Amino acid sequence: MLLKFLLPCLLFVFSKEVLGAHECVWITGQVNCQHDPSKNLNVEIRVYDRDSTFFLLKLMDPDDLMGVTFSSENGLFSLDGCGDDFDWVPGFKNKPEPYIQIRHYCNKAEGETITLPEFSTFVPNTYELGTFQLDGPSNGAPKVNLKTNRT
């Protein structure tokens, strides 16, 4: 009786290792608050793995936090993290869909959160955000420069 319960549980736990895609990201960049450079310090940058776009599934399986960091006084940051996604369809790899959220206090005392589009740059390459203006109009998706050698 106990074996009938434990075997499916063990298969489920180990199936993620066998049937899941594990990917890591390296991210570098700089955030800039032009009207008040003192607010460049401690901007919170997070990278998430998007799990589902369907509302009901999002409630059951929210996006996974892959990593978090805070910017230096000149706005520079580097961030790394890893994510796992289960391969729901055999033969089709379901890679993590990373995206960045930036939480800052440049424009409002209560703070703002900026969510950037998904990207698909994984280790050994580095996703370079460049300089992101916190108090200016967004010019669309940031440019991506790939680096294959990280030291």
Automatic annotation (TrEMBL):
Q: From which domain of life does this come?
A: Eukaryota
Q: A Gene Ontology CC term for this entry?
A: cell surface
User: Where is the secretion signal located?
Assistant: 1-20
* Key words of the record: Secreted, Signal
Compartments, record wording: Secreted
Q: Which Pfam families match?
A: TTR-52
The record, for Gene3D superfamilies, names: 2.60.40.3330
Q: Tell me the protein family, please.
A: Belongs to the nematode transthyretin-like family.
Q: Would you tell me the protein name for this molecule?
A: Uncharacterized protein
Q: Which species does the entry assign this protein to?
A: Mesorhabditis belari
